[in-house]
């Protein structure tokens, strides 16, 4: 008589298609004849490893809509389903290289189609309206990388090909705001509305006035881009992805002093804070890919969202986390609130 396997928990509780989750279970038997499986909404997952107490399953690359269910099967008998939240696809055929951003005026989402360095793609910036309509913004910016809304409500975009920041006024016209910024990538505003831009070659610039960048701090160069966000303590937090599997998140105080805030991440990229002070980073942690959550004291971390190839994230006003891979953007209803970017 076959024993019914039981799922005890799924770690993490949030994922995007293609992400690997750990199914903690009892009574599972991986059988040589192949009569064992894991399913997401009835569609077979790929099992990467299994024991009687744990199954590592890679979710199918399928279009799902939020709340889903996982089951395991052994000896032809399926377990009871257990809920998991899988990201809802918002857009694809993009080329996102950093965090998306939320327009504080109307909650629309903005993300990029960046292209290789020196390649002009058209259109290069998109706006996803609150009603789900994807609109091409009528501006031409080469290699848009970092994006953020300023205190004036305008959108600011870094151009890594030409070392510039452009201001998109009223969503219609791109005006050069600052130049001479090297390979400009990350961008963030502090609580006073001052702009900071990261040149991935090793310099962080502070730009208190248009066209007046000043050197603020130096970091190790990045092979990709700097990603930046201000924390609740007023410090500027930066990732600088490299080729190691033990990269750091850096924190820079108001005087430009740099310290390593957290180490142990593989290729850390986009980052964002929630209102409780937790830091979320698109990275690999202990061999698991996704969005890593770092506690406010930086003493512990866990993978909060499972997913491959993530490069950025942001929070919406409705408690959703929007995550981006290089080519796709997803939304997950996580019930967490953060700083709009």
- Helix content percent band: under 10%
Low-confidence residue ranges: none
Q: Would you tell me which CATH topology of the largest domain applies?
A: Neuraminidase
Give the count of structural domains. 2
The major β-sheet equals:
14 strands, mixed
Helix/sheet category: mainly beta
> Based on the structure given, which CATH architecture of the largest domain is correct?
6 Propeller
The share of residues in extended strands comes to over 45%
- The tally of helices reads 0
What is the CATH superfamily label of the largest domain? TolB, C-terminal domain
Q: Please report the first level of CATH classification, the CATH class of the largest domain.
A: Mainly Beta
Please tell me what the overall shape is.
elongated
Average the pLDDT over all residues and give the rounded result: 94
Counting DSSP E segments of at least 2 residues, the number of strands comes to 34
In angstroms, what separates the terminal alpha carbons?
Answer: 56 Å
Summarize the topology.
Blueprint: E1 6-11, E2 14-15, E3 20-26, E4 36-40, E5 43-44, E6 46-50, E7 54-58, E8 66-74, E9 77-78, E10 82-86, E11 88-91, E12 101-102, E13 109-112, E14 125-128, E15 134-136, E16 144-149, E17 155-159, E18 164-169, E19 173-178, E20 184-189, E21 195-199, E22 203-207, E23 214-218, E24 227-230, E25 236-239, E26 247-252, E27 258-266, E28 271-273, E29 279-285, E30 288-294, E31 301-306, E32 310-315, E33 320-325, E34 329-333
